[in-house]
C-alpha cells in the first residue's frame, strides 16, 4: 500500500470486538501486549505472558469475520535472549491465528528477528518508545529528541529492514524523526504518537473509543466516549431494577 494508501491498524483483544470491527475499514488488528494494561489490570506490559497473548490472539481470530490481518505482540522475555525460543514462541502465535508477530527492539534483537523470518514468519518491528523497555527508558517518555538518538533510530530501522521485517511501528517520537525514517525505508512505517508522515497509524482501541479514562495522552484522539455511555446504561439498569421498571412487558415469557 505504501505510498498510495495509508495503513489502518487498531488494537483488538477479544472476539466480539473483532466481529464488530471486522468491516470498519481496519487493515490490521494488533493483539497488543497493551492487553496487560487495558484488559488484564497489570501495571505495565512486562507481566504479559505468552499464554495471555495466545489466548487473546485465538479470540480475535475467531471473531474476525472479515479479511483483517492479525498481528500479535511477542511479550517481554519471549524472544530477546534466545533465537530458538523466539521461533517457538512466534510459531505459537501464528498457530493461534496471527499473520504477523511484532517485536520491540533494533540491532540488539537482530538474531531473533533473522531466526523468526528464516522460519517463514512475518515480523513487524517496533522502535522509539518501547513499553517493554520502560524501566531502561525511565518511564513513558518521548524518545529520539536529539540527533544522536535519531541516528541510532535510523540505523536500527535499516538493520531491521535488511533482516526482512514487513513493516515497522514507530512509537512516541518527534514527527520529523518518523518522517525521516519513513522516507529512508521501503517497507511501511506505522506511527503511534509519531506524527502525520508515517505510512499508517495505530491506536489502542480502548483509548480512541474513550473506554480508558484515567488520562489521555496528547497523541490520542477520542472518537467516542464509551466509558460514559456504559456508566449511564448501568446506572439506568440499576435504577430500573430497584424501582421494578425492568423487566417490562416485552421482556417477560408468558
Ligand atoms: O501493545 C500495543 O498496543 C502496541 C501499540 C502501542 C503499538 O504495541
Count of alpha and pi helical runs: 10
> How many beta-strand elements?
8
> What distance separates the N and C termini?
57 Å
Radius of gyration from CA coordinates: 20 Å
Bound molecules: 3-methyl-2-oxobutanoic acid
Specify the structural class.
alpha/beta
Low-confidence stretches: none
DSSP helix fraction: 25-40%
Helix and strand succession?
EHEHHEHEHEHHEHEEHH
Shape assignment: globular
Mean pLDDT: 97
Which range does the strand content fall in?
15-25%
Main-sheet strand order equals 1-2-3-4-5-6-7-8
Largest sheet: 8 strands, parallel, barrel
Question: Can you characterise this structure?
Answer:
The protein is of the alpha/beta class. Helices cover 40% and strands 15% of the residues. It has helices at residues 15-21, 35-38, 50-63, 83-96, 110-118, 134-137, 147-163, 175-184, 205-208, 226-243, and strands spanning 7-11, 28-31, 69-73, 100-104, 122-128, 167-171, 189-192, 200-203. An eight-stranded parallel beta barrel has the order 1-2-3-4-5-6-7-8, surrounded by five helices. α1 links the parallel β1 and β2 (28-31). Bound molecules: 3-methyl-2-oxobutanoic acid.
